[in-house]
Amino acid sequence: MTQRCGWPSIVVRVLFSFFVVFAVYNPSGHSYWHWIQQGSAGFWAKTAVGIGLLIVHISIVTTTVSVMRWRGVLLIVALLFSGWMAVSNHAAFGHGGAPGTIVVALTGLALLYAAGLSYSHIHHRLSGVTHVDKVW
Question: Does this model's pTM top 0.85?
C-alpha cells in the first residue's frame, strides 16, 4: 500500500508538533504546566495527562533521531538558531523579553519535531528511498 505525502500531511504534522510542544508549556497560562500549578483537578487526572504527553514527546524524539540521526538534528538546530539570530538582529523586530524568547525557543522545538516527523516522507518522495526500522 502506497502512502502519499503532500502538503496537507506536512501541515498536519507541523500543527501536531506545535500542539504537543505548546500543550506542555506556553506563556499564555493555558498549558499542562499551569494546570499542574492550579488545584482544579485530581492528582490522577494530571498524572495520566502528564504520562500521555511524556509518551508523545519520547515517541517524537525517538522518531526524529532515528530518521535524521544526530547530525541531521544538529544541522536543523543550527539552521533554526541561525535563522533566529538573523531575525532577532534585524532592526524591524523588537525584543519580546523573556516570554518572546520562550515562544521562539518552543517554536524552534516544534519545527524540529515537525522536521523529524516529515523528513522520512519528504525524502521518500524526492529520492524513492524508504526508511524502515528494525523490529526485534
Answer: no
